[in-house]
Design brief:
78% helix; mainly alpha; 2 strands
Length: 190
């Protein structure tokens, strides 16, 4: 299937979807819990949906459209995240989103061009994007933060979040990506 141009309306809807996912992830990142003695935040269950949406956009309409959507979502995501949480989380979120998503697009397209199977590109690009996004976000948001718990534990929480995100992505999002991809491709061909 050849990627095509998306309508301006669809691009805006996909950018809005990204902003909603980011805002929800940044709201839930403020809440942490412990599992088997490891600290994690609830944001780890939400943010992988942004990467899933980007990967589907790349697959179905090309990397140029995905970059446009990331660019449109970038500033509103910062502002809404700053409003929901605080300015530091908003800025950290924007930077990590931009770096992670642009790297995801680059890696996804690179793998996609070299593999006939549908799953290597989302699997590898999601892993790489989550590493960059997670550590960029936690460092920028919580290194020497006024929240003593997060300032002292951001590295551990980031690592645990990353591990959980990878598991969530492999167990839940990759199969969901495959199902959505199949359905959307069938719909586009109908």
């Amino acid at each position: 299937m050849q990627p095509g141009r998306l309508s301006a309306n669809l691009i805006l809807k996909l950018a809005l979807l990204q902003v909603v996912i980011i805002a929800l992830a940044n709201y839930t990142v403020q809440f942490s819990n412990t599992f088997l003695g490891y600290h994690y935040s609830y944001g780890m269950f939400v943010f992988p949906a942004a990467i899933l949406a980007t990967d589907l956009t790349i697959r179905l309409s090309g990397q140029a459209n995905a970059r446009i959507i990331v660019a449109i979502a970038f500033v509103p995501a910062i502002l809404i995240s700053a409003w929901i949480a605080d300015w530091r989380i908003g800025l950290a979120s924007g930077l990590s989103y931009l770096f992670g998503q642009l790297l995801d697009i680059l890696v996804f397209q690179h793998i996609r061009e070299r593999s006939l199977a549908w799953w290597p590109a989302p699997l590898i690009s999601t892993f790489v994007a989550n590493v960059i996004d997670t550590y960029t976000f936690y460092f920028a948001a919580f290194y020497r933060s006024s929240d003593p718990f997060m300032a002292a534990n951001w590295g551990e929480i980031a690592t645990i979040d990353l591990c959980f995100k990878v598991v969530v992505c492999v167990v839940l999002f990759l199969p969901f990506y495959g199902i959505l991809l199949h359905r959307l491709q069938a719909r586009m061909l109908a």
